[in-house]
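Example record used in the benchmark description.
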Amino acid sequence: MPNAFSTSDSRTFTLKIATRGSPLALWQAEWVQKRILEQHPEITVELLILKTSGDRIQDRPLSEVGGKGLFIKELEGALLDNRADLAVHSMKDVPGFFPEGLEISVIAEREDPGDAWLSPKYGSIGNFPQGAVVGTSSLRRASQLKHHRPDLQIRSFRGNVQTRIRKLDQGEVDATVLAVAGLKRLDLEDRITEVLPMEWMLPAIGQGAIGIETRIGDQETLSRILHLNHQATCDCLLAERTLLIQMEGNCQIPLAGYCVLNGDELFLQGAIGDPEGISLLRYESHAPRQNAFKLGQEVAGWLLKNGGEEILQRVMLSGI
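Model output (structure tokens):
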């Protein structure tokens, strides 16, 4: 099968980007497309829009049907059979392990990693009444919300950003939580009623960062996207994703992690909680940036030894 990185004549290359068709996914893919063309105006860059399993299955929580990896499975298939040369992902949707032959080769500079509280009826979470309904399908968000506010009712809430906002406006729930980065990218920042503090809501691993997945060894593609790589974000995500891998390697557990670079020192926070929010473990450590991998291992090790292993076992036994 011919490589998607083809020529229409001896001078012009065509580079194909696999992407989901949601507005946010298209924004991210078009952002990458524009950045490539700015650096390489001599080539053609096209989008290959695919519907993923995560987009098709909307009647069940992701944790019941395979986790956030369902949002990238079909995109990876397009890379493996050479229909596309690169795939653009939200890094928070990327599991810890990849199909053989693929890798995240570039990570762009991170946008705001935080979580936004949207409640047009009540405003801030401090004004939210006892027993009101929050829509989210994120085990991480549900666990942390329930830990701080056990009275809240959590309702499964699927769909892209605009769909969830529409459901919120129609009164299906009283509030929802969405990534600040996605709202900013879609010019929906004005819908945010409060940015939840990190003490309340530690972000998903990789939240706010865009990653580019390619075939290992595809230097032709890599040479045209390397300028998008942001080393500080890469170092932080190495620590975060090492934490993810050590804690089972998938996105189906109530796990959070966020790393920042201060000078040449990385500071990594990790948290894991049970789905009911009864137990919530948090730990922070730091290390020189060249020790990002060891830092992720250290934080994961502490969490596992101090109750995280038991939480993981309960989550698995519950079938979540």
